[in-house]
């Protein structure tokens, strides 16, 4: 948990308590439903929570912003971002029902009022949002095809509406088709841990 405070020292007492509660909740759920690799649960805060918050180093969502987390799994990046931005609405979507159940239960356990969840395939979700966030669920061009329908026209944030995606490794080939609309942010510029050496946030404007 200290690693979160190291990079986000301005948290309220409520936010600190919510982040602190995540470890026991995920450890408990993970023993029943595997949402995080068993050997990786001890790295929850660095590999999952802080990684999710990498998006917050690129954009600070304005109050009232609506965000869909596509392929949320057990709630990443949606739940850490929902803790950090309590006035932003997050809609967590995944095609695997038991993972959605974990995300739903954890959001309720820590008292998040700004999270909704849905068990469905991405193609089935027709609602519109300011942004979609995702953690490496599929290649970027495929993801963009699916989420284009979900992005609102009207703007309210400093960034034009679009997609924020957490990715790793060499992305040149993947980004090529959307290069003129994309920006890549290296997480190693924000977080000093070795884990983030090759991790990136990719932003693609969709209705800018």
Describe the structure in your own words.
The protein has helices spanning about 1-5, 15-30, 45-60, 80-85, 95-110, 140-145, 170-175, and strands at about 65-70, 90-95, 115-120, 130-135, 160-170, 180-185, 200-205. It is an alpha/beta fold and about 210 residues long. It has seven helices and seven strands. The chain is globular and about 40 Å long. A seven-stranded mixed sheet has the order 3-2-1-4-5-7-6, with helices on both faces.
Choose one word for the global shape.
globular
* Strand line-up across the major sheet: 3-2-1-4-5-7-6
Structural class determined from secondary elements: alpha/beta
Q: How would you state the average pLDDT, rounded?
A: 95
Tally of helical runs: 7
- Biggest sheet architecture: 7 strands, mixed
Alpha carbon gap, first and last residue: 36 Å
> What gyration radius follows from the Cα positions, in whole Å?
16 Å
Strand content: 15-25%
Fraction in helix: 25-40%
Oligomer: single chain
Poorly predicted spans: none
**What letter string, H or E per element, gives the SSE order?**
HHHEHEHEEHEHEE
Q: Please count the beta strands (DSSP E, at least 2 residues each).
A: 7
């Amino acid at each position: 948990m200290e690693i979160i405070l190291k990079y986000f020292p301005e948290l309220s007492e409520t936010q600190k308590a919510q982040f602190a509660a995540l470890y026991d909740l995920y450890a408990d759920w993970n023993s029943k439903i595997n949402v995080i690799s068993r050997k990786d649960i001890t790295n929850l805060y660095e590999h999952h929570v802080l990684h999710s918050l990498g998006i917050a180093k690129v954009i600070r969502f304005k109050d009232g912003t609506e965000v869909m987390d596509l392929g949320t799994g057990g709630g990443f990046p949606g739940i850490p971002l929902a803790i950090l931005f309590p006035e932003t609405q997050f809609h967590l979507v995944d095609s695997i029902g038991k993972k959605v159940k974990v995300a739903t239960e954890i959001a309720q356990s820590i008292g998040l009022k700004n999270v909704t969840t849905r068990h469905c395939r991405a193609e089935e979700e027709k609602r519109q949002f300011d942004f979609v966030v995702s953690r490496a669920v599929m290649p970027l061009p495929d993801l963009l095809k699916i989420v284009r329908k979900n992005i609102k026209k009207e703007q309210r944030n400093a960034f034009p509406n679009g997609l924020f995606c957490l990715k790793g490794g060499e992305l040149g080939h993947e980004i090529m088709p959307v290069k003129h609309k994309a920006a890549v942010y290296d997480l190693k510029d924000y977080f000093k841990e070795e884990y983030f050496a090759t991790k990136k946030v990719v932003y693609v404007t969709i209705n800018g």
